[in-house]
Amino acid sequence: MNKKIISVVMMLILTLTINVNTFAAPSTNQTSELEQAQSSKKALQIQVKNFNNELDKVLNKIDINKAKMNDIAQDINKTQTKLEIVEKSAIDQEDLFEKRARAMYINSVDSYLEVLLASTSFSDLISRVDTLERIIEYDKNLIAKIEEQRTSIIKHKDTLTNENNKLSALKTNNEIILTKLSKDIKEHKVLLSNVTKKETKLIADKNAKELAAAKILKELEAIKTATLSRQLASSKSSTSNSDAIPIDLSKSTNYFIMQSTAYSMGGFTSSGSRTTRNPNGYSTIAVDPSVIPMGSKVYIEGYGYAIASDTGSAIKNNLIDVFFNTEAEVLNWGRRDVRIRIIN
């Protein structure tokens, strides 16, 4: 190969090298866009961290509310039982009074005065007066007792109403907290997911350009070496088989592997509904709202369909708590890894 040909080849290589370097270098707009995406991601991560701290406080508050709700429910049952006993006692006292009055009427004793006039002697009169005084005192006490019991019934009913109002207020407060919590979690997840996707794409584009440029430069260097050593043909053959570094992309899936525990203490959930276990329908599970949004319907291998309607301060990250009706079922379930699919 003569010097003229070598000079032409070298000039061509130099020109291509300059163009490749220009191609490999990211544009100002691309760099700025990537920096902005990374800055936004860091800001969102800080927000998510702060949000998770607030989430812990909210979950603790919900735990307290749940305990109060279940305590009030028990108080309502006790109050209702006491109320039924008082009402029955009042009814029994009224029946006794009516029976005695009816007996006096049947025996033609229409009034206390008639009883006194029917006395046959002064001693009999004194005896009858004493008896009537006792009867009147008994009637007076009976009427007062019935009135006292009625007052007690009204007081118990007022207490029951107040307790019901407290229960309704707690349920409403829980619903408001959980609704806002679920909304905030979804918004943060969407924002973080979008900025992460953008950052990943920008980095992938940058890496792909750098990889392509590095490959071209490597091939040009091989051509340059071959030209200078007058082995252009063989060097081209040896460099034509070079491989590009593959990019490994992770694939998303609707299935998750999570740790599962179980509980059987029935009562109110964090969302205000009752805990339930329905193998043919949807059962109750407790979740971390930052992982599975509240209200989500899921399918759990070995358990069935369920609704994420409960939470707890101990339920964090990739941990769920499934509900059973009996302690025996809880012990049988134990602690295990389960596969979960979010339906909606």
UniProtKB/TrEMBL annotation:
Q: Under what name is this protein listed?
A: Uncharacterized protein
Q: Per the UniProt entry, what species is this protein from, by scientific name?
A: Clostridium tagluense
Listed A to Z, the keywords are: Coiled coil, Signal
List where this protein forms a coiled coil: 34-68
- Using the record's annotation, list all stretches that form the 3D domain: 283-343
Kindly indicate where the leader peptide sits in this chain.
1-24
Per its UniProt record, what SUPFAM superfamilies does this chain match?
Answer: Barwin-like endoglucanases
GO annotations of cellular component type: outer membrane
Q: Which Pfam families match?
A: 3D, CC_PcsB
